[in-house]
Amino acid sequence: MTGTALPYDFQVDVAADDIDFMGHVNNASYLKWVQAAVISHWQHLAPVEAVAEHLWVALKHEITYRRPAFLDDDVVATVLLEKVQGARAFYETIIKRGGDVLAEVKSSWCCIDAQTHRPARLTKDVIEKFFVKPADA
Q: GO terms for molecular function, please (predicted)?
């Protein structure tokens, strides 16, 4: 895929049940946020019919924690689709509070057919919705 990924900002709601015994956001909450952000990214940029025909299953998450988050922090998860290979999609999600990076996440997902629950490839025109084409294209 050529072009630049369209960034998608997902507003995170830090809730009381995200806070652990140390007074900051539990690591498991970051995973919940990434999953919600990636699915929202898909639903926001993909055509309505593609959203209805496809579901996503997470295959792998690799999270690097940088700084703690706290209750009532203004947190944003910025999602980028790095590439699509077959039925797999590779994402980078950066979770920030203002200018501070709280966590960096690399994840891979499998696209599945909503009816059969079998892996499904996306069409080129659907994939292109997530990227800005080069100016000379």
A: fatty acyl-CoA hydrolase activity
Determine the pLDDT at residue 133.
Answer: 77
Residue 76 in any domain: the answer is yes
pTM assigned to the model: 0.92
Q: Does residue 136 form part of some domain?
A: no
Rounded CA separation 42/96 (Å):
20
> d(Cα 84, Cα 108) in Å, to the nearest integer?
10
State the Cα–Cα distance between residues 76 and 97, nearest whole angstrom: 7
Domain that holds residue 14: 4-129
Owner of token pair 């496809």 = 54
For 32-61, give one letter per residue: b (16+ CB within 10 A) or e: ebbbebbbbbbeebbeeebbebbbbeeeeb
* pLDDT (tens digit per residue) in 13-25: 999 999 999 999 9
